[in-house]
């Protein structure tokens, strides 16, 4: 196989939605069997070889999309019931908007929580990226630090994307669901972008409420697993590495840690909104970087 073909294959892997796990598997298999693809990738004129990376138990690190130092143990002690009571007019609008968005979601997915979670994660990973990008541009325009908020919001986007990479290992989207993702992303990205430009404090409040709904959905998901309505299958390999879960972890463990992540996102976004409701700039309050 010539170098061009290998490069094209790698590009295809790195740009597909499930690139994380597939590239991970490819890297693992090529390193295990000494396959030629990895050697050719390294021998590219511009190629930068990856140093040998291992898990704590010494086995080869199979993922290219996240590294061992980016993994963590979810803080399961977080209060899941916290709620921001809407008091101001804009808070009430944000709250009602999220409650309204829930209606079509409930009607479409009903109790198909795997599918529902997978689809919602495609939306959940958007606000952090939009907010992070706009704060990045603001920092450049004003020659000012962001107080760590760019990093915190991009971390959130990445964390949500890892939720999606985990869910696609459990649920395979059908063609019409992929079509729905395309449509929803097109609408939601632009709507959220405009909202963040107009009022970042309302945008963060909306996300705070979306995260409260995510906690509720994952709690219902867990109930169905506990009641035996959804099979408690073994946890995907990517989830075990990302959340440092034990080898015998199951779907229930994965949903539990994802729900804890959502509770952290809820806190970060309500906090970001509160700062701005008090008439301050986000950069005036240190961002909760690495808050999991
Ligand atoms: Fe999520
Ligand atoms: Fe979230």
Automatic annotation (TrEMBL):
Required co-factors: Fe cation
A Pfam family of this chain: AOX
TM annotation in the entry: 117-137, 179-198
A Gene Ontology molecular function term of the record: superoxide-generating NADPH oxidase activity
Enzyme class, spelled out: oxidoreductase
One of the protein's GO biological processes: alternative respiration
Key word Transport present: yes
UniProt KW keywords: Electron transport, Iron, Membrane, Metal-binding, Mitochondrion, Mitochondrion inner membrane, Oxidoreductase, Respiratory chain, Transit peptide, Transmembrane, Transmembrane helix, Transport
EC annotation from Swiss-Prot or TrEMBL: 1.10.3.11
Record text on subunit structure and interactions: Homodimer; disulfide-linked.
UniProt protein name: Ubiquinol oxidase
Lineage of origin: Eukaryota, Viridiplantae, Streptophyta, Embryophyta, Tracheophyta
């Amino acid at each position: 196989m010539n170098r061009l073909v290998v490069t094209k294959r790698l590009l295809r892997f790195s740009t597909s939605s499930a690139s994380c796990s597939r590239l991970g598997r490819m890297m693992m298999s090529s390193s295990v069997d000494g396959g030629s693809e990895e050697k050719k990738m390294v021998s590219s004129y511009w190629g930068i070889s990856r140093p040998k990376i291992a898990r704590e138990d010494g086995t080869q690190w199979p993922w290219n999309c996240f590294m061992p130092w980016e993994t963590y143990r979810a803080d399961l002690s977080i209060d899941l019931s916290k709620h921001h009571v809407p008091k101001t007019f804009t808070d009430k609008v944000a709250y009602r908007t999220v409650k309204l968005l829930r209606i079509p979601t409930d009607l479409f997915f009903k109790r198909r929580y795997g599918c529902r979670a997978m689809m919602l994660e495609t939306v959940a990973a958007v606000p952090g990226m939009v907010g992070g990008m706009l704060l990045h541009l603001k920092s450049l325009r004003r020659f000012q630090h962001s107080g760590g908020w760019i990093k915190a919001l991009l971390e959130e986007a990445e964390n949500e994307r890892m939720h999606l990479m985990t869910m696609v290992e459990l649920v395979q989207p059908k063609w019409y669901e992929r079509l729905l993702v395309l449509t929803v992303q097109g609408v939601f990205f632009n709507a959220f972008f405009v909202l963040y430009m107009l009022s970042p404090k309302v945008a963060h409040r909306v996300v705070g409420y979306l995260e409260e709904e995510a906690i509720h959905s994952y709690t219902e998901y867990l109930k169905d697993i506990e009641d035996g309505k959804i099979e408690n299958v073994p946890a995907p390999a990517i989830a075990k590495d990302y959340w440092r879960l034990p080898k015998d972890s199951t779907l229930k463990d994965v949903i539990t840690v994802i729900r804890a992540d959502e509770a952290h996102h809820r806190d970060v976004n309500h906090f970001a909104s509160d700062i701005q409701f008090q008439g301050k700039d986000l950069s005036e309050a240190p961002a909760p970087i690495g808050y999991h």
